[in-house]
Amino acid sequence: MNQIHARTDVPKRTDLEKDYREKKFVYVISNPAFPNMFKVGIAKDWKAHLKSYQIGDLLRGYKKEFVLETPQFRETEKHIHEQFDNLLEWYQGDLLDIIQAIKDFNKESK
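The structure assignment produced for this chain is given below.
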């Protein structure tokens, strides 16, 4: 009897360049319940991620403040984590400063 083995992992693409990096979105969201605090996260689909917060959290009212698609998503998140006071993925500071730090980091990384 022949055994059949089913794979559940995603196959690696072979049609991409050697130094190809997947892009994901770095997003910044806010909630009026947390003044001067902003959540910085990573997602393939930021709209679905935002919707999950709206549905799953009793403190609805989340708002997208900024979104950037980049292959440097992990490095960007780490950079923001090192630059701003934070509690896990929530960052305290001026929204425009956080957004500018994300833009500047990605401009330098190119």
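Interim note for the steering committee: The CA atoms of residues 16 and 22 lie 10 Å apart. Helices lie at 46-56, 73-83, 95-109.
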